[in-house]
Amino acid sequence: MKFFIDTANLAQIQEANDLGILDGVTTNPTLMAKEGIRGTEAIMAHYKTICEIVDGPVSAEVLGTTFAEIVEEGKKLAAIHENIVVKVPMIKDGIKAIKWFTDNGIKTNCTLVFSAGQAILAAKAGATFVSPFIGRIDDGNWDGVQLIEQIVNIYNSQGFMTEVLAASIRTPLHIVRCAEAGADVCTCPLSSILGLLKHPLTDLGLEQFLKDAKAMQ
Ligand code: G3P
After folding, report:
1. Region of 54 on the Ramachandran plot (φ > 0 left; ψ -120 to 50 alpha; else beta)
2. What residue owns the CA closest to ligand 1's atom 3?
């Protein structure tokens, strides 16, 4: 399973990249706005900087909602860097645009996916990635990981090439369960990635080893 970081914060992207386990980045308008990025030029420059830090797919989301707007914006985003993946919402014009991008060699990430039916449509349009939002599904009292399992099964049995990118990850356990469910990619906040490191027995064991190491000196 590939690890993407789900943020537009450059320090966090750098920190995750320095760990040596980062395969890519996803952003969305909320995450970009949180970093105080305003205006087309600043947005484009920010994506370029991210692409210079991480050698892997970087999802940049379109802000338009009509076919013409999405295609126009997506072409500009894709021109920033070869690693840009155009992130398109799961709406009728979005599916149409994903098909257009597929036919024109531009990679896409179909976002705001909450059902298997939506995931089938994204795959039919040729999306490179599909992003089911598992944390938000859990918030509604359903099981987000179950949806990942269902989409993985459908894609495998149907031979769809779209990669299942589990998004809206909130905890380290989400990452483990998505790996079990067969997700191709997990996009996570830095806190969830670092949370995978933690175990009290590791801390206790290391404390003892360091104490014994001192006794040997
Ligand atoms: O990038 C989309 C997704 O990961 C959003 O997560 O926590 O806002 O539901 P969240």
Report:
1. beta
2. 168
Distances (CA, A) of 53 to 29, 150, 197, 206: 20, 34, 23, 32
The predicted structure's pLDDT at residue 62:
98
Q: 90 C-alpha to center of ligand 1: Å?
A: 15
Query: Cα angle vertex 94, ends 175, 30, to 5°?
Result: 50
* CA dist list (Å): 54 to 61, 93, 120: 17, 30, 30
Q: Measured from the CB, is residue 135 less than 6 Å from ligand 1?
A: yes
Series of mean pLDDT values for 10-residue runs along the chain (217 residues) = 98 98 98 97 98 98 98 98 98 98 98 98 98 98 98 98 98 98 98 97 98 95
Q: What angle do CA 212, 201, 210 make, to 5 degrees?
A: 20
Task: Give the atom of ligand 1 at the shortest distance from the alpha carbon of 111.
Answer: 2
Residue 136 Cβ contacting ligand 1 at under 6 Å: yes
Q: What pLDDT is attached to residue 198?
A: 97
The pLDDT, as a whole number, for residue 199 is 97
Instruction: For ligand 1, pick from 110, 134, 168 the residue to mutate: most ligand atoms within 8 Å of CB.
Output: 168
| pLDDT given for residue 161 in this prediction | 98
Q: 96 an active-site residue?
A: no
